[in-house]
Amino acid sequence: MSALIAAPAIARLGDNDPHRAVSRAHQMPVQGIDVSQWQGDIDWNQVRQAGIDFAYIKATEGGDHLDPKFLQNWYGAKRAGIPRGAYHFVYWCRPAHEQALWFMLNVPNDPDALPPVLDLEWNGHSKTCPHKISKQKALEKIRIILRAMEVHTGMRPVIYTDPGFYPDVLHGELDVYPFWVRSTAAEPHKIYPGRKWSFWQFTTTGSVPGIRGNVDRNAFNGNKAAWGRVLQSIQAAK
């Protein structure tokens, strides 16, 4: 009889290059992904059936780039019943008010969307803006965009960051915002000591049915009941 019982959906989620130090993340009860044009055409129904509970979708970058797959992914995830939110990738050589306006012009204020995300990394691989700016100037830009995102969506944004940017600018700052941390080779507390976090990006080589190739995988810092309360609070806020 037990052989006929289906395996939990989470068992269908994999990693093409797993790291032992983040193995706990694979077993956390609320699993998600983040995607952009690089994932190509996504079968969102398969993604949902595989056990994905949420998705963050790249929308905008700087003040003039819209991800070519954003709206396709935005509405595809919605039709599949996957809670989703949009993220903006900051370009440090562009004025903050222009970036905020670009996000607001391109991201629908849907009542069922997750809080928006501000993606904060250094643009080290950029051909036009590889240099860093001062902590003070970075925080000024960040605060302007965060305020605009909150006005646009009615929700406090989430801050995404990585081990390269965090110690330069965010350590000890902006504690009122939820954090989404990248940590693919260690538990978050080892990379971001003392920082509370809501989401953990634990691999960039994830394997999820419905997506060809690698995809970033994430986990929510809480159980299913806590995630349900997050979704309920979004509905209440709208």
UniProtKB/TrEMBL annotation:
What keywords does the record list, in alphabetical order? Glycosidase, Hydrolase
A Pfam family (short name) is Glyco_hydro_25
Membership in a protein family: Belongs to the glycosyl hydrolase 25 family.
Please give the name of this protein: GH25 family lysozyme
Q: Which organism is it from?
A: Methyloligella solikamskensis
